[in-house]
Amino acid sequence: MKTHRVLTGITTSGTPHLGNYVGAIRPTVRASRLAEVESFYFLADYHALIKVGEPARVQRSTLEIAATWLACGLDPEKVTFYRQSDIPEIPELTWLLTCVTGKGILNRAHAYKAAVDKNNAAGEDPDAGVTAGLFMYPVLMAADILMFNAHQVPVGRDQIQHIEMARDMASSFNHLYGEHFTLPEAVTEDHVALLPGLDGRKMSKSYDNTIPLFVPREQLRKLIMGIVTDSRAPGEPKSTEGSALFQLYQAFASAEETTALARAFADGIAWGDAKQTLFERLDHEIAPLREVYNQLIQDPARIEKTLKAGADKARAIATPFTARLRAAVGLRRLDSAVSAATTKAAKSSAPSFKQYRESDGLFYFKLVDAGGQLLLQSTGFASGKEAAAAIARLQQEGSGALDGLRSQLATEADPAAVAQALAHFGLDKA
Ligand code: TRP
């Protein structure tokens, strides 16, 4: 039984490095294997446009990051793995959220504030070089999360503020238009130490101190040989405290292996030997993944297909949900009944459509009423898209759509109850 939803995205602006692997990719792939979670992983390529102005780099990075996730064991059959820009409902939701977001809140976002502070310090106009894209970044990110009603969002600590903003936007929207959104929670891996880079500072693209995850073996060795150490000679005891080399080793090795290396440090292992030990340990974990990666990266068409299938799965949720949100805010057919001026209160226990996939591989939906009673249950659809289209028709046309859909319905409750529930979507003529 899937009890909660976990969602996270990676901006497609660079090449994955060891820090991404240890801090994000490895833990999320592991978590995605737990039976009780429904995971959503996506390539945040709209976000990439905020900082990258080179089309070829956005495309290459998208390919590399997709291949990395797959090579590291993400199973696209078990999770929903997609590319943000394949989901047109996301920019649509961004606008709906923009309209319930205080500008003052966005003024306080770290990334924007840092840019303004830098300009102020340089005596420039506060907004010099700041795009509206950077300013709106948190709203786009909230749309990513709220679209799928994610409960938990694994992120780096620098992203916690964005999740809090998404909660604010969800609350504002729910307050105005009824309970549509789950309030998401940030999950940070506190026990995973930040991985140091070649120079001992946090491994980060912006410090230019990264070790790319899938460089060829020889290049990996060279990079590791370049990690900063102190000047202690072979035979002199070395401190594990503050040693980038030791911390990198720890992120990959077992507890026993780590203890053994600590002992070797105390016994005065030569830095060159310690680096060789680190290299072998890293390569031991990475080599099999690298092999898969190299195969995948040579077959972009296959990755493209995987992402498109993921987008179908994602849109099976996003399309009907967006129809519901559009109705909630008043973007409605003109020939549908004008519902009461306020929709507040009613929504906390509103009827809802649930879409899911069964072990037979087919896509299903059901409609349940406010009390959770089953009203409609579909037969299997070949694709999530078809199931979503049927839901969208029911939401837009109400009971009028039932006749046309009859062959796809396995269970149908009392017509009056069904009609009443469908009317809740605000579009029924009843
Ligand atoms: N902003 C995130 C980062 O730079 C990437 C991202 C975009 C994201 N949308 C998201 C992460 C939604 C989690 C959920 O790391």
Description:
The protein is an alpha/beta fold. The protein has 3 domains: 4-194 and 299-328, HUPs (Rossmann fold, 3-Layer(aba) Sandwich); 214-290, Tyrosyl-Transfer RNA Synthetase (Orthogonal Bundle), CATH 1.10.240.10; 348-424, Double Stranded RNA Binding Domain (2-Layer Sandwich), CATH 3.30.160. The protein is built from 16 helices and 9 strands. It has helices spanning 18-32, 45-51, 55-71, 89-98, 103-107, 110-121, 132-147, 160-177, 217-225, 244-252, 255-266, 271-297, 300-329, 384-397, 402-405, 415-423; strands at residues 4-11, 37-44, 80-83, 152-154, 185-187, 352-357, 363-368, 374-378, 409-412. The strands form 3 sheets. The chain has a 4-stranded antiparallel beta sheet with strand order 6-7-8-9, with helices on one face. Strand 6 (352-357) and strand 7 (363-368) form a beta hairpin. Helix 3 (55-71) packs across helix 12 (271-297), helix 4 packs parallel to helix 13 (300-329) and helix 10 packs across helix 12. The longest helix has 30 residues, at 300-329. The radius of gyration is 25 Å and the shape is elongated. Residues 342-347 have low confidence and may be disordered. Bound molecules: tryptophan (TRP).
